Amino acid sequence: MLNPDLFLDDLVIGDSWPGGPITIAEADIIRFAREFDPQPMHTDPQAAAQGRFGGLIASGWHVASLVMRDFVDTAPFGATPMLGLRVDELQWLHPVRPGDTLHIRREIVAVARSRSKPDRGTISMKMTVSNQDGAIVLSFLNLIQMPARSGGGIAP
Predict the structure, then answer these.
(1) I need a surface site. Which of 14, 86, 109, 128 has the fewest CB within 10 A?
(2) How far apart are CA 150 and CA 144, in angstroms?
(3) Rounded CA gap, 102 and 127, in Å?
(4) Which of helix, strand or coil describes residue 141?
(5) Tens digits of per-residue pLDDT, 10-67?
(6) Kind of pairing, strands 16-23 and 101-113?
(7) Do 138 and 91 touch, CB atoms closer than 8 A?
(8) Contact status, residue 129 vs residue 104, Cβ threshold 8 Å
(9) Distance between CA 131 and CA 100 in Å, rounded?
């Protein structure tokens, strides 16, 4: 079931949405890394076992792409068109290993209507991804452009 369409005017600081769970399979870690981040810690279980992480870990880019996919699939704003403008403070804080299950929290931390184009504005969302043990594995701020409702009003 698709979520209701939400627009800039509908959002306030503190609104939040869950995402996941996403369980990470070893084969997926290796497949992604072979194509996009071919380092031994992501592609070779034997070499990874001898490395500083003591075993295979997912590429941070793999985890970030899964978070994006979950955002598209869960459509927290319904069918409202959005445009990603920027990612800030991207942090990979804890290794993601085969078998880990990830949970996502998305929280609105800023809402601003454009002064020059009042039919739209931006939201800033804090993305926090944790594993099954509660350890935060990834976090970032995402600046997203969103349309406003016709005649809606957020104070400039």
Answers:
(1) 14
(2) 19
(3) 12
(4) strand
(5) 999 999 999 999 999 999 999 999 999 999 999 999 999 999 999 999 999 999 999 9
(6) antiparallel
(7) yes
(8) yes
(9) 6
Dihedrals phi, psi of 87, to nearest 5 degrees: -125, 130
Strand partners, 23: 101
Contact 93, 134 (CB under 8 A): no
User: Which of 17, 21, 22 is CA-nearest to residue 4?
Assistant: 17
Q: What is the pLDDT of residues 67-109, one digit of tens each?
A: 999 999 999 999 998 899 999 999 999 999 999 999 999 999 9
Q: Output the pTM of the full model.
A: 0.91
Q: d(Cα 120, Cα 43) in Å, to the nearest integer? A: 43
User: For residue 91, what are its two tokens?
Assistant: 């942090």
C-alpha dist (Å) from residue 40 to 26, 54, 150:
13, 12, 52
